[in-house]
Amino acid sequence: MKTIGFIGLGVMGTPMAANLLRKGYSVTVYNRTPGKAEELVHLGAETAASPLETARSSDVVITMISNDQAVEEVYYGEQGILGGLQPGTTVIDSSTVSPSLSRRLAADIHAKFSYFLDAPVTGSKPAAIDGTLLFMVGGDPKIVEENREIILAMGKEIIYTGPSGSGTTAKLAHNTIVGINAAGLIEGMAIAAKGGIDASAFLRIVQSGGAASKQADLKGRKIIDHDFSVQFSLALMLKDLKLSSVLTDGMGVSTPMLETAKSLFQIGQSAGHGESDLAALAQVYEEWIGAQIADLKPPVAAASEAALTQEQNRRKKTRVPLEIPVMVSVYQWLQEGSFSGQSVEGILNDVSEDGLQIASSFPLEHDMFVVIHLPPEAGLPPMTGRIIRIVKKQGLFHYGCLLSALPLYQKIQLKEYIAKNTEV
Predict the structure, then answer these.
(1) Can you give the pLDDT of all 424 residues of the chain as single tens digits?
(2) Which residues is 116 bridged to in the sheet?
(3) Where are the domains of the chain?
(4) Residues 6+ away with beta carbon under 8 Å from 328
(5) How many CB atoms lie within 10 A of CB 244?
(6) CATH architecture of the domain covering 3-163
(7) Is 210 exposed, middle or buried (CB count within 10 Å of its CB: 0-12, 13-18, 19+)?
(8) Which residues pair with 324 in a beta bridge?
(9) Catalytic residue (choose from 171, 219, 239, 411)
(10) Fewer C-beta within 10 Å: the chain N or C terminus?
């Protein structure tokens, strides 16, 4: 049985390597960020100190890395894969990168008398865990067949796409559709939410009609539940759409829907949702419509809001002001499909059911979106707000910021934090 080196232990790489170990393969792992190999070591993996060392001790090297720059470093760096390749080694890159980089890797690896397959996957984290990924593979078909057993230890199907670079081309075309579909799903759910329609009921309509899609199945419930734990991050979706945009520009293919989807995910990234699941794009739409994409308010949510209102009324009666330092990230649309941004200091001095009042010396404008960062001890993630009111007094601007789509647990957490900072 061939020995395998696996480099890149992120959301996808770790479960892929784990499946190889469970199938009885001898696996040596390496990750640029230390500490991610512990789970695999418990399953029997060995660790290497560098990509070079990993390649030197392996018959097959598999890489699953986030972007072109990181791939370049892992392959071409001082301790890179190319420095440790032995003749006859097969390298399988499952990263989503530019086709031009895949073709360059193929040429440079062949020059080392070794073999290269570009083999990106589709299926995201759940399929990586279950071993049901689909691999789209470019390269020598003979090498594909020789490594079929290894690839299928991590997935359910191999689709051969052609020569080197064709696998990554297929993946970018595929993810273009994913990004467009995801944006379309979220936009439709936002329309329904603004119209007062229960989100779960509308999702059933989508899944039963002509709008049914894999994205509706994978992301619909996550959007409703505000579960933005990462299956496939918004930042990676944006990265793939950018790669696809460069590819199609070079091909001379007009892609208006790709460019629209890319702009939407850029807005999501600028609003601070890049490290969340791509479904977090829904939070941008929720800000735009001023409503949450959610089921009709359950009693527990109403009770929570009532408790927050009660706490606010108690504070007003006792006239105890808040003086909580915050940082406010400000993003401005530049009209060319990009944003500029900076962070300014502010003071949180009031809170309501749906918003916060921030005082700052920095001038902002109506309808501007800001990201509010509470002190670390609050334990709350950044909150996005829209400025709906501005009052200037005592040399400061007092901004009323409408918070949209704040999950129930965060409302409760905010209430508890406010209570701790209020003394009667």
Answers:
(1) 899 999 999 999 999 999 999 999 999 999 988 778 888 999 999 999 999 999 999 999 999 998 999 999 999 999 999 999 999 999 999 999 999 999 999 999 999 999 999 999 998 888 999 999 999 999 999 999 999 999 999 999 999 999 999 999 999 999 999 999 999 999 999 999 999 999 999 999 999 999 999 999 999 999 999 999 999 999 999 999 999 999 999 999 999 999 999 999 999 999 999 999 999 999 999 999 999 999 986 555 555 555 555 655 554 444 345 788 998 887 654 444 444 567 889 999 888 767 889 999 988 888 788 888 888 888 888 888 888 889 988 889 999 988 866 666 677 778 788 877 765 4
(2) 91
(3) 3-163, 169-289, 299-420
(4) 343, 344, 345, 346, 358, 360, 362, 370, 371, 372, 373
(5) 27
(6) 3-Layer(aba) Sandwich (3.40)
(7) exposed
(8) 348
(9) 171
(10) C
Domain 169-289: give its CATH code: 1.10.1040.10
DSSP string, 296-326: SPPHHHHHHHHHHHHHHHHHHHHT----EEE
Residue 337's region, left for phi above 0, alpha for psi from -120 to 50, else beta, is left
Residue 387 sits at the vertex; the CA angle it makes with 383 and 393, to the nearest 5 degrees, is 115
Q: Does the active-site annotation cover 392?
A: no
Enumerate residues 6+ apart whose C-beta is below 8 A from 398. 349, 357, 358, 359, 390, 391, 392
CATH of domain 299-420: 2.40.10.220
Instruction: List CB contacts of 376: < 8 A, sequence separation 6 or more.
Output: none
The H or E element spanning position 245 is helix 234-251
The pTM assigned to this predicted structure is: 0.70
